[in-house]
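Quick question about two entries, pasted in order.
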Amino acid sequence: MAAALALFYKLIPLYITVLLGWVAGRYLEASGRHIAGIMLYIVTPSVIFYGVMNAPLTTEVILLPLLTFTLSAVVGVASMLAGRRWLKDGSANIMPLAAGTGNTGYFGIPVALLLFGEQGVGLYIVCMLGTTLFETSLGFYIAARGRYGVAECLQRVARLPSVYAFALAVVLNLSDISIPDVFLPLFDNLRGAYSILGMMIIGMSISSMRGLAGNVRFTGVAFFGKFVVWPLATLLLWWLDSRYFNFYDLAVYKALFLISITPMAANTVVIATLLDTSWRQAAGTTLLSTLFALVYIPLMVSLVLGN
């Protein structure tokens, strides 16, 4: 319990960042929509590129994003199908992003640094790439289908640079080409901006809201998928592999478990804002999940990871 309280204390700066975003949106009229575009098209691809370039790539490691992508897709699509039974306002199309991904970057990277250190955070970033790729490909496509036709959705997905950044980094890494030292401070700064701006977007998005949950059914389905189904799926995979296959080691499953317990992705708000699709609902539920995670993550880390 002492470890849980220590982690709880270390998460407080992330919540202050959300508060600062609310202040910027409420009193400075800062636009979350403009920052969302910068995050999706510039900062996120840069963080992905840097993370893959610094990861020790083996066949097993390269397959990790595919594993997390599959988990995101299964949890997200299942939650969407469940949500369509109770949600008639079109918000179910946001459900794959709400339940199937997580705030693995803006929120998760600082927590991974606290738990695993600089050496372990590279492995965590490779694992989280699958959720990020899901957000910017299939998740984005499903969300856009709530407003656009198939052809336009595919065009919008094709314009997202994260997939290209990942592919380029894999090729360069396997070719033993590294990032020149002169650019390293730039990528370090972009990683810091990734967390700061991402959390502030949540605060900006809720500055114009009246109430947090919106549609309680949406929030219930999203919470169940994110905080119950995702961790259980990861623990089942962990148990099966450790008992029968031994494909990955403990460090990988610690990283995967941290991904599974992160709150709803701030990119859910980013994408919903860009698409003008149920963005207030996404912002309110994302904020509630972030507040819930303040207690949930330290408790789960203490119980499962023993930190």
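Here is the second entry:
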Amino acid sequence: MTQKPATPFPELPAKPIPLQFQSTTFTALKPGPKLIVLGAVHGNEVSGSKAILKVIEEFKTGARFLQKGQVTFVPITNPLAFNKVQRNGDRNLNRNLTPTANPQDFEDHVGNWLAPLLHAHDVLLDIHSFAKGDRPFALFGPADNQGDLQPFAHARAERELAFRLGVDRFVDGWLETYARGVQTRLAYLKKTGLSGDGLSTDPRYGMGTTECMRAGGGYAVTLEVGQHEDPNGPAVAYKAIHNTLAHLGLIAADLPVPVTQYEQLTLEEVIDKHHVEDSFAKPYLSFDRLKKGDLIGVRKSGEEVRAPRDAVIVFPNPGAQAGQEWFYLATERPIPSIDG
């Protein structure tokens, strides 16, 4: 029997798109979980956008049917960054994502629209891609806790979803590591007498889409589908959307099987760029292994930055601005207890 060819992914809207915000929602007759799926939070990360547009069309034509609950799709979350074909519009939307009565930039306006929309849902799947790396991965949040930084009560549900997206690498520890990095940043500014950006010295500046979702009482997973231009990226995103819909029982489909063999990394340290001419010793990719003492980069001052221990480098950003995150260090370990 000849297999029917797969439906191609839709073309993205022609640029420039209007600087307005658009979402598409489908609601079933029966109550159930409320899911929201985001694409293009960063304007040059559009694999998720293509997958979302395909799933929207399937719901519109009846190829998919919502049996309970609600699902909202946002193919292009940051239209300014999308028009610019770059990560940011005026700034990084995945920082300081919170409503404000006095918006100062375009991303503040996005936040005023997006944060209430997130809080009207129970679950978030946020789809991204990366500049350099070897394979897709997912990020989830903390164990259940009642702390001040990121109190949370849905760790089990969040990780059960992450295990069913179709990837076998996971990262956690983002907001805690960012908060520790802010303390290091403040100490450096005090030592040097420099003044830092008010946002970059606030631990809450690490709040992005997933942190905003958790702050509103829901849970969230970020999926990184591969490199920006990877032709397989939309398919990875499409599978993750399907698996999420099936796992939550929003559609009638076979339940996705959780991954059992996986790699888990916990972010532990973030290193800032101090000067625009700070440079890496080589073109690192996310998840490259480091041995204690390995040369990572050299500051403009000539100071060498070496690995303080055996670690994994994550999110190396040679284009980072001075005073912003240059790279993260992570440690491989078993999935932290969801009962902690």
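Reply: The longest strand covers residues 263-272. Helices lie at 47-61, 79-84, 106-119, 155-162, 174-192, 209-215, 233-247. Hope that helps.
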